[in-house]
Amino acid sequence: MLGRDKILAMVEISQKRLLEYRADVYRYAPGMRLYDVKDALDYVNERGFIFFWPKKGVEMPSLWTAVAGNRPVPNEHDDPGNISWEWKDRMLDKKVWYYARVLKHTNTFISLETAPFFYALTPNFGSPAEDFEDQYRSGVLPLEAKLVFEALYKEGPLDTISLRKSAHLTRRSSDSGFNRALDILQMDMRIMPISIAEAGRWRYAFVYELVHRYLPDVVEKARFITENQARQHLVLKYLASVGASTAKTTASLFHWPLDKSEATLKTLAESTQAVVPASLENENATFYAHRDLI
Fold first, then answer.
1. What is the pLDDT of residue 201?
2. Domains parsed from the chain with CATH numbers
3. Taking a C-beta distance cutoff of 8 angstroms, is the pair 241, 259 a contact?
4. Taking the model in full, what pTM does it have?
5. How many whole angstroms separate alpha carbon 214 and alpha carbon 189?
6. pLDDT digits (tens, 9 = 90+) for 190-206
7. Counting CB atoms within 10 angstroms of each CB, which of 9, 179, 201, 258 has the fewest?
């Protein structure tokens, strides 16, 4: 009992310490920045998953801030920090990471080692096509998602313009439905952008493909990961990046039920020395902190 009591003892964390920790992890300091695409790949593999751009109100490291520092994304296209955009485009078809709108409707880089843990929590259990059809028939998925999925399933990779045509969603009134379908299918890890095509008005469009065809190893590895293993792995990676978080914030990021988030954090605190309950200066909620922050 003494060991368990020690693990569960509440620790106190100052706001100053938390900000210092995140500044180091997020690579804010000039000497810690990413300077080439290899640095970017190493950073994604180190962290497990990061955002492409910072998202207001969501605490997560991003490629932009690791390149440009802690400042807003500017409108100027020639800003030095925008080299991160070029890296993303150049590596999109190299299968060196998983890139899609997976978390918070935000473009997210996920290491290929971590991607199976995300996939293990998706609604994809057996045959991707059969799983999709079952969910559509149950009313979980909108018609637009069905049309987009089927177009890619039948025709293979398609750029955004061609995909809209193949899915019969070219009318202006279909804009929101098509974009919502892309969001849903990416969050469920059913489709992902795999390259850039010179298409459309701006001669720039993502080419989409079905995940299970493009990255079959991710799907296969996910079969051997249980739900609890997946949640614990992802939460540990998350806490190692942000330092500390609450069950509510964790649930919001991963789009999990609150009880699943709470159970995962409590299990990690009780069964490992990597996570401890914590109080944060000027905050009333219970936080869970990664040991590296302590």
1. 85
2. 2-118+225-293 (no CATH), 121-222 (1.10.10.10)
3. no
4. 0.94
5. 11
6. 999 999 999 988 889 99
7. 201
